[in-house]
Structure formats: C-alpha cells, structure tokens
Amino acid sequence: MPIYTFEHQNTTISKLDTASFNSLGILERQHLQSALKNNIQAISPHTLIIAEEFCEWDDSNRRIDLLGIDRDGNIIVVELKRDVTGAHMELQALRYAAMVSTMNFSQAVDIYQKYLGHSKNAENELREFLNWEEEKEAEFPKDVRIVLAAADFSKEIATAVMWLNQKDLDIRCVRMKPYKLGEKILLDIEQIIPLPEAQDYQIRVKQQAVIQKAAKTEIESNKRAKYRFEGNIYGAGQLVLAVIKKTYDKNPDYNLEKLQQLFPKSIQGTYDIITTTEDAERIQQKTSRQLKRHFLNSQDIIRTSDNQELAVCKEWSRYGTNHFIQQIPDELGYIVEIISDNEELN
Known about the structure:
With 346 residues, the chain is α+β, with helices and mostly antiparallel strands. The protein folds into 2 domains: 4-194, 3-Layer(aba) Sandwich (Trna Endonuclease, Chain: A, domain 1); 226-339, no CATH class.
C-alpha cells in the first residue's frame, strides 16, 4: 500500500513517491545493517542481537548479517538485502540456519561476549534477556528462526518461503520500502510472510495437523497389534466386531439401544461403536470415501429382530482397543488376550 501525506487544514492527501535504497545512497552494510542491529525490533520483535557478520565456522567464509536470540530461546538468523529481488537470499539463510543449529548456550555466550567486548557480562545479559529462573542450558536452542528483510521479494522467493513454512520451518519476510519526504527518509516496514493476522491461525492449523498425524500413526501402529478371543486371532477392529457379533448371537432379542448401552460411544471416543448402516454410510461420505469408519460388508452387518441393520466401528487406536477390552461387561464372561505380533491374523 502506498503512503500519503495528509494536510488537514487544506484537506489534501498526497501520495509519496517510492524511492530505492540505491537512489538514496543507502548502503546495505554500512547504513541499513548498522541501523537495524541497534533497532532490531523494527523487523524482529523480542530479539537480542548477539553478533554481526558472524562467520565462526570451519571451511567457510560465509557471514550471517545479524545473529540474534529471541525470548523463547530460538536462534534468529537475519539476512538483509537492499535490492528488490534479494536473489537466493532464502537459500543463503537456510545454509546459515543449518550451520548455527548445533550451537549450544556456552557457545552463544562466547559469541555474544565478543560482540559486547568487555563492557558487560554476556552470560548475565543473556540470562536476564531470556528471563531464566532455573538452569535451562540443555534446552537451548529451541529452534532456529529466519528473518529475511529486503526492499521487496520476488514471486520465486515468496513461493519458496511459503512452501518451506508448510514444512514446519519458521521463515519471515519483512519488506522495507523507503520513501523520501523532504530531507527525511521514511521506511514502511511490514511483515508480509506470514501475514501477522494469519500467523496465529497458521500455528493452530500446524498444531492440529501434528495431532492428527500422531493419531493416524497410532491407529496404523495398532493395525499390527493382535488379540486372541474365543480361540481366534484378530486385529483391533476385527476384535471389536467379533465381540459384538458374539454378544448379539447369544442375545438375539437385543436391539441397537441395548447394544449401545453395553458398548457406549465413550469407549471409542469419536464414533458410536455400533450404529445403523445408514448413519455409518453418512459418516463415510462426510469424511473420506476411501477410509471406511465402520464394517459395511454384508457378512459383517448385524441384522436385528426388529429389522435394523447395524454396523460396528472399525477405527481403533491402541489405547481405545485396550479401553474397550477393559470395559467389556463382566456378565458376558469374555476373555481377550493380547498376544505377540508374530502370530498370523485370522
């Protein structure tokens, strides 16, 4: 968005022309970097700079423009470009992030002490900044974050950064657009990736994805677990089906309500353990046609004396299966044995 001047007395709004760092005689290291290291909050809030032109690694003369730490204990790699394209700056920053990812707290203290000189005690300054009330050196760093700051970003860089962020990296693009107003230079500084208003939402989406991935992993793992019931060996879902079908075979007067009382939804947590085939098919259509949540093959359907067709839930985590086994009513007299993985499924 352009910047305007507003003169309220004569009610005029005038658009400021954009300039470039080059046309204004602003040099990348001498001017821009020097200003930002003392005012890093402008592009990276809650950050402490611990080194400038950092290059303490073997077999490389590459330099990180600014190296910092945030209050959460993350290492911050800041890469600056005064031009519009910022050519390959994301790849450059990724290399730097990898190279500092093994830094420990003691090394960070040494690096910061060199930056401070003898004026202050680096370790005390870092601990105060991090607000550590107990020993947390073993937890440092939590992660490495990247801040890219430039006059603007090409489509290629923006696309690459958004894709990398989807892969759980933390890269932020901050646009610094200069304007000339008389003898003054104005800087319009704005984080454009990720958009600040969308950042909390994106974090929640990532957290939900992690939870779903963990749940899926647990379910996939449980598919390999085996159980012995009535002399036969079953996987988790097949075990539940066998228990409920045996219960109905012994009690053919039971209807859906009675079966749900014996095997309530609270045991599985997400779906009714037993429901009508119509409800089961509706659930499948809402979720994924490729992933069936209930046993719907003809031989697996329970047909009751009141002409209902019932389907049993087939999606079970290891915890849910064990909970189901523990909740089988004592009066049924069933015994389920958890067996080793090297026996064949029935």
